[in-house]
Amino acid sequence: MLKLRDDFGWDLNRVHLLGFSDGGTVALDVEARMTGRERLGSCVATCAALLAEDATYDACEEAPTPVMLLAGSKDDVVPAEAVRRAAEALRRRNPACGAEVKVFDKSHRAVASEPETRALMEFWSERLHARRAKASDYGDDVVDLSGDSY
Question: Which of 38, 57, 101, 141 gives 93 a disulfide partner, CB atoms 3.0 to 4.6 angstroms apart?
Answer without folding.
Answer: 57
